[in-house]
């Protein structure tokens, strides 16, 4: 296994580099260092850093081979992307891949009933703990899968978009049964739609138990209105807070959403006239007996009472609002380009959104191939996820790690726990929320953990016993071809003052050039 | 209620004393209003919109009991010492904080301001939190580079902001945004610093001239300082019972403020009780109980400095007066602020109030706002530090301060 991995790695590296060297003199190439390595242009290095979670040798080689447009197209259609075999095997072994939400929720519900029927005492506590542990394990496996893909998948833009949309349609694993279903939420609600139609993406999140449970819509019924999800659906998911809707719209959308919920058990008994309006897909349910069929007005136009078709009509109406195009365009540009993205770029992305009926790939094409993007990159502060993933990508350059716990601990420490944002607004996309004094010193400590040792990334999970793998060599080929040429004098000076390779690594990962992209 | 004779410290006198020394605190020709011995201030932000109606219970309103059939808290019973605690003829305190906050209230170290809040009616957590932290009127445009605590710190401390103001949070809150870099550090888990002096120097030098330079240097310094402080105190308290959670965090905050910081900020989450909120016991009661015990720990760890400290507890909004279909409450408007301090004129429920009945709710759903947060806080700041009208206007430019005579 290990031997295969190493061989695979070496071959990929050789291929990549050979291709890179063979194309010496192509448009994406700049000057040469003393070692005669082809150096990327700064603009290309920055662009590549944004399309990916951070540079590694493979992405640089592929970029040299394909050039900007074809690289982007390959990223936007990444169906053939293959994970390194050891990582693929690791992911395939996870329990979270195998269970569907319906089975999981039903089993957890049944177990909870059984536990409550037990007499108070040690047995009951033990059963309760076992159930709790299962939920935690599934949530952790989801995070583990996310992190391994973020570091190793060649489909880097897809992985970033998965993160972006998970954050945009944020759910909190600590609420209700959400831990059991976040894995499915990521895999089957978010991932298939990351480059597709925005409307489909909204509907997929709307029909997922994770969202319905998290924002309480599973409890929203005629006569028992809960407007939590209705509000966030407009404020955070589609229109933005100044998107032109009113408190009345929130209340009316909540009525439209009555009956949209979760059911992991049998279908309810319904009056004959309601049976035809019942909708069920897995654990998602629209129960017409819980729906408010009276007429509503949404965004100034009426919606007739007709069951789940109202929900589809309401979402279609909302995502067609120009405010939605503007809001989504700006969020994407903030994530990928700059805290204050060029307004002309945002406007063009919004136009693309409107002309293509919300096609996300088209909007990203407008973004990454725009003439504004080159001038605007380089000043974007990496959020914790990008910082941690880019550091591991750079330090280990494709070499498979076996333990993702340290990465999760770093994200916890920096305040960006995956599926850990309690409120539905998701994590901030701008520097001011990540670059305070306390967060900067934490970041340096993580740079040190990665730069000065193996940080536990190669410990066997759950078994203990750490192999001695030492620290990574960051002054490598990748450094000289894509990082070193663009370092500022202060950074070079700090690197010169390092007393050891470990310190050198630490300073490089702490440098402004590494914490920004 | 009138103040009893023999009150340990007269707040107004104390402030005058503070002001006398303020005249000496002139740096580079500019007068800063916070002298070394002046008052201390902590803002506690309850994020999520806590249900103030089940903290300060309007027990004289029969409408309260009609509107909350499953989550209302029973009227105070003079024979019980575990139920709600009557504060006056209209208001009672939640049982969950009876032992902590109730005890401080009895010593007149706590006051409540019902019908408090903001003119922002979006009922959005994020929108309202932001507008409060910025400290501007709703719709007056947003400048995310300037929060009201940042402006207060700048007014009071000038160049000393970096060493006298602190956020006890992982991220710097918007309230502290401003030209100066306010340090931040969460005290939940504090370990040993990872860098020695030489390494810290190299890291700082790498950011020389960069806009993050102050954050980088102050962050590295603060880590050293706090580790030292906590190590000393842990050594001194070797035999003390270990506290944990928010109580431990608040106790550490108290020690740092006692020794060094004059303006602090902490936020506490988990208040968005749409479902299964509970009544005398349950989710909200547990959260309130943790908060109450934490504030009590904060007050005792300040020692004598507690008499020189004011704490204000705020939240972005209150919640619907009626419970919803899920035994919880939805986003509302007016809320209840708490003011705590060793020498405040507490033991009272203050500010503009109104009767609570079916017809008096805001938009037939929430508490109205009769006490604007900027007026309330501006009034406190003015009294605490003797701010001039111009200085108060710098912190909250649109709203004249309101004097609730708490300090």
Description:
The complex is a heterodimer of chains A (517) and B (407). Chain A is mainly alpha-helical and 517 residues long. Among the domains of chain A are: 2-76 and 381-515, no CATH class; 322-376. Helices cover 56% and strands 4% of the residues of chain A. In chain A, the strands form 3 sheets. In chain A, strands 3-5-4 form a 3-stranded antiparallel β-sheet. Chain A has a two-stranded antiparallel ribbon with strand order 1-2. In chain A, strands 6-7 form a two-stranded antiparallel ribbon. In chain A, a hairpin with a 2-residue loop joins strand 6 (296-298) and strand 7 (301-303). In chain A, helix 6 runs parallel beside helix 8 and helix 21 packs antiparallel against helix 24 (501-510). The longest helix of chain A has 31 residues, at 122-152. Residues 1-35 of chain A have low confidence and may be disordered. Chain B has 407 residues and is of the alpha/beta class. Chain B has one domain (41-187, 243-395): 3-Layer(aba) Sandwich (Alkaline Phosphatase, subunit A). Helices cover 33% and strands 13% of the residues of chain B. Chain B contains 12 helices and 13 strands. Chain B has helices at residues 11-22, 62-67, 101-106, 125-134, 148-157, 161-164, 197-206, 213-236, 245-259, 283-301, 373-385, 389-395; strands spanning 26-27, 30-31, 40-46, 56-57, 85-86, 92-93, 110-117, 165-167, 263-268, 309-315, 335-341, 348-349, 371-372. In chain B, strand 1 and strand 2 (30-31) form a beta hairpin. The longest helix of chain B is centred in the middle third of the chain and has 24 residues, at 213-236. Chain B is globular, with a radius of gyration of 21 Å. The model of chain B is unreliable at 1-31 (pLDDT under 50). Classes of the chains: A mainly alpha (517), B alpha/beta (407). At the A-B interface, helix 11, helix 21, helix 23 and helix 24 of A face helix 4, helix 7 and helix 8 of B.
